[in-house]
Amino acid sequence: MGKEINFASIHSLPTTDGTPRDIGNASLGDVDLVDEMLKAGWAKVKENKREDTESDIAHKELESQARSAGRGMREYPAT
After folding, report:
1. To 5 degrees, how large is the angle CA 31–CA 2–CA 15?
2. Handedness of CA 15, 18, 19, 22 (dihedral sign)
3. Regarding beta strands 21-28 and 31-32, do their DSSP bridges make them parallel or antiparallel, or are they unpaired?
4. CB 26 within 8 A of CB 7
5. Cα separations (Å) of 33 from 28, 50, 56?
6. What are φ and ψ of residue 35, in 5° steps?
7. Cα three-residue angle 73-1-70, rounded to 5 degrees
8. Is residue 61 helix, strand or coil?
9. pTM score, two decimals?
10. By CB count within 10 A, which of 8, 10, 72, 76 is most buried?
11. Per-residue pLDDT reduced to its tens digit, 19-74
């Protein structure tokens, strides 16, 4: 599409096949792509082993709204 996506790595996961796997934040200009994917129901929030942050709570709410509206994935994996 010719647009630059910004990605900031928060955490790198160990690789088992030589492919790097990073967890982080992605944006397109001022648009947070994680928020947009959650609003559309195209993503699911991963459960944390730590206390939820304000950002985690906001992401869970976006996911819940998408699920309630029937957007995106028709079947959400069990949590």
Report:
1. 75
2. positive
3. antiparallel
4. yes
5. 7, 23, 15
6. -60, -45
7. 15
8. helix
9. 0.74
10. 72
11. 988 888 899 999 999 999 999 999 999 888 889 989 899 999 999 999 999 998 76
How far separated are the first and last CA of the chain, in Å rounded? 35
Task: Name the residue type at position 67.
Answer: R
Q: Distance of CA 6 to CAs 9, 19, 47, 70, Å? A: 10, 20, 24, 29
Say which residue the tokens 């939820």 belong to: 52
| Short-list 7, 9, 79, 13, CA closest to 46 | 79
Going by pLDDT thresholds of 50, 70 and 90, the confidence category of residue 10 is confident
Which residues of the chain form beta strands (DSSP E)?
Answer: 6-13, 21-28, 31-32
CA atoms within 13 A on the CB side of 40: 8
